[in-house]
Amino acid sequence: MKLKLLFILFFIAAYSFAQPSATQIDNKGTGLNVIEIQSNEFTIAPNPAKNKLNIKLQNTSEDLKLEVFDVLGKRIYKGLITKLESSIDVSNWKSGVYLVRISDDTETQTKRFIKQ
């Protein structure tokens, strides 16, 4: 049962990575204009981590919601990101795989991280 849940969570995480960035198409006037919407991409490091997980945003104009889930889907951390670089103390967390989700009113991104 746990293996099945783990597979489902990895499938969901892999699917979220495969999604293309949103685009807006405007066909008014004489031509076709395609405007790419900048997403709030983020990186996590180190991965795997022992004590501290660093989160770095490429850009942001507003506070973003940060949530971390274990492989069973239980939320173990909730907070706000208010600057381009933030850190979370993970030293007391159990070893394993976690999903880090950052979201705003219009977009959600999820990345996987491993706690050693």
What do these coordinates show?
- By secondary structure, the chain is mainly beta.
- It has a domain at 42-115: Immunoglobulin-like, CATH 2.60.40.
- The protein contains 1 helix and 9 strands.
- The strands form 3 sheets. A 4-stranded antiparallel sheet has the order 6-5-8-9, covered by helices on one side.
- The radius of gyration is 17 Å and the shape is globular.
- Pfam families: Por_Secre_tail.
- Keywords: Signal.
- It comes from Winogradskyella thalassocola.
- This is Por secretion system C-terminal sorting domain-containing protein.
- Residues 45-114 form the Secretion system C-terminal sorting domain.
How many β-strand stretches? 9
What does the average pLDDT come to? 76
Count the helices. How many? 1
Low-confidence stretches: 17-28, 32-38
Helix/strand-derived category reads: mainly beta
CATH C-level class of the domain at 42-115:
Mainly Beta
Largest sheet: 4 strands, antiparallel
Topology, please?
Blueprint: H1 2-18, E1 23-26, E2 33-36, E3 42-45, E4 52-57, E5 64-70, E6 75-81, E7 85-89, E8 96-103, E9 108-115
Antiparallel strand pairs: 1-2, 3-4, 4-7, 5-6, 5-8, 8-9
